[in-house]
């Protein structure tokens, strides 16, 4: 049995003005005042808040990550952010291939893999997102879709230290709907098998697999207890410290 330390990560998406730093401070206070959870904690704010959040999280158990990075080296690419820039400012991880980027920016598995490789090159942990859409689920294509996305999006050089997988069914994001615990167990179990087959027992069993999609304090306990669920990638409920801390409670 491989020990995988769970991660509860908050993806703030395109939310948060400077005043939102108060939520980070409130989360740090909750983590200091309440029993220490048996998990890592990360917040990925928008780029504009990275610097103040890194400063505010210093000395706390909260790590700060980016929500995306370019696959390219620094240079003439207006509007893009290189992985090395995230690392330089104090981020330790970056989300790549979120379904909103796959949809809004037509990101392909190939591009997502290149972004993960750029993250590794810069010394960042790549959190690689995969997940089926509702029509794919209705056509019973869930396992095919996640298997194809894993093959295309996860770099060959993935290790348990540099890569985390996040399974986020697209239809569960921001909808209040979640798969059943049995469905999550099936998908995460398949992801685990694919990882072990490709990377071998050590790495395949060491890679963490997060679940994301409408995780709330009320359902976190049940979802986090599912086999091969090694934490959560949380959107809406990560914006308020009390809600996010209520999800972290799954590991207290
Ligand atoms: O997309 C997500 C995290 O990356 C999940 O978002 P919600 O938790 O708002 O459903």
From TrEMBL:
<feature type="active site" description="Electrophile">
    <location>
        <position position="98"/>
    </location>
</feature>
<protein>
    <recommendedName>
        <fullName>Triosephosphate isomerase</fullName>
        <ecNumber>5.3.1.1</ecNumber>
    </recommendedName>
</protein>
<feature type="binding site">
    <location>
        <position position="174"/>
    </location>
    <ligand>
        <name>substrate</name>
    </ligand>
</feature>
<dbReference type="InterPro" id="IPR020861">
    <property type="entry name" value="Triosephosphate_isomerase_AS"/>
</dbReference>
<dbReference type="GO" id="GO:0004807">
    <property type="term" value="F:triose-phosphate isomerase activity"/>
</dbReference>
<dbReference type="Pfam" id="PF00121">
    <property type="entry name" value="TIM"/>
</dbReference>
<keyword id="KW-0963">Cytoplasm</keyword>
<comment type="similarity">
    <text>Belongs to the triosephosphate isomerase family.</text>
</comment>
<dbReference type="GO" id="GO:0005829">
    <property type="term" value="C:cytosol"/>
</dbReference>
<keyword id="KW-0312">Gluconeogenesis</keyword>
<dbReference type="GO" id="GO:0046166">
    <property type="term" value="P:glyceraldehyde-3-phosphate biosynthetic process"/>
</dbReference>
<feature type="active site" description="Proton acceptor">
    <location>
        <position position="168"/>
    </location>
</feature>
<dbReference type="InterPro" id="IPR013785">
    <property type="entry name" value="Aldolase_TIM"/>
</dbReference>
<dbReference type="InterPro" id="IPR035990">
    <property type="entry name" value="TIM_sf"/>
</dbReference>
<keyword id="KW-0413">Isomerase</keyword>
<comment type="pathway">
    <text>Carbohydrate metabolism; erythritol degradation.</text>
</comment>
<feature type="binding site">
    <location>
        <position position="214"/>
    </location>
    <ligand>
        <name>substrate</name>
    </ligand>
</feature>
<dbReference type="GO" id="GO:0006094">
    <property type="term" value="P:gluconeogenesis"/>
</dbReference>
<comment type="pathway">
    <text>Carbohydrate biosynthesis; gluconeogenesis.</text>
</comment>
<comment type="subunit">
    <text>Homodimer.</text>
</comment>
<feature type="binding site">
    <location>
        <begin position="235"/>
        <end position="236"/>
    </location>
    <ligand>
        <name>substrate</name>
    </ligand>
</feature>
<dbReference type="InterPro" id="IPR000652">
    <property type="entry name" value="Triosephosphate_isomerase"/>
</dbReference>
<keyword id="KW-0324">Glycolysis</keyword>
<feature type="binding site">
    <location>
        <begin position="11"/>
        <end position="13"/>
    </location>
    <ligand>
        <name>substrate</name>
    </ligand>
</feature>
<comment type="function">
    <text>Involved in the gluconeogenesis. Catalyzes stereospecifically the conversion of dihydroxyacetone phosphate (DHAP) to D-glyceraldehyde-3-phosphate (G3P).</text>
</comment>
<dbReference type="InterPro" id="IPR022896">
    <property type="entry name" value="TrioseP_Isoase_bac/euk"/>
</dbReference>
<dbReference type="GO" id="GO:0019563">
    <property type="term" value="P:glycerol catabolic process"/>
</dbReference>
<dbReference type="GO" id="GO:0006096">
    <property type="term" value="P:glycolytic process"/>
</dbReference>
């Amino acid at each position: 049995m491989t020990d995988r330390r769970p991660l509860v990560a908050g993806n703030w998406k395109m939310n948060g003005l400077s005043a939102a730093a108060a939520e980070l401070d409130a989360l740090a206070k909750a983590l200091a005042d309440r029993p220490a959870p048996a998990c890592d904690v990360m917040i990925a704010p928008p780029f504009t808040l990275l610097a103040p959040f890194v400063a505010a999280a210093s000395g706390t158990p909260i790590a700060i990550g980016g929500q995306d990075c370019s696959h390219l080296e620094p240079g003439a690419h207006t509007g893009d952010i290189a992985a090395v820039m995230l690392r330089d400012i104090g981020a330790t991880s970056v989300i790549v291939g979120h379904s909103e980027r796959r949809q809004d920016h037509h990101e392909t598995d190939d591009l997502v893999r290149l972004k993960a490789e750029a993250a590794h090159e810069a010394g960042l942990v790549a959190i690689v997102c995969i997940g089926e859409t509702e029509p794919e689920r209705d056509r019973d294509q869930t396992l095919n879709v996640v298997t194809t996305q894993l093959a295309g999006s996860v770099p060959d050089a993935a290790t348990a230290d540099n890569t985390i997988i996040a399974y986020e069914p697209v239809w569960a994001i921001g909808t209040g709907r979640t798969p059943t615990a049995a469905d999550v167990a099936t998908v995460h179990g398949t992801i685990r098998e694919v990882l072990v087959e490709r990377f071998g027992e050590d790495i395949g069993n060491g890679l963490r697999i997060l679940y994301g999609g409408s995780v709330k304090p009320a359902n976190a306990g049940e979802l986090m207890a599912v086999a091969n669920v090694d934490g959560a990638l949380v959107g809406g409920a990560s914006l308020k410290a009390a809600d996010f801390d209520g999800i972290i409670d799954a590991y207290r």
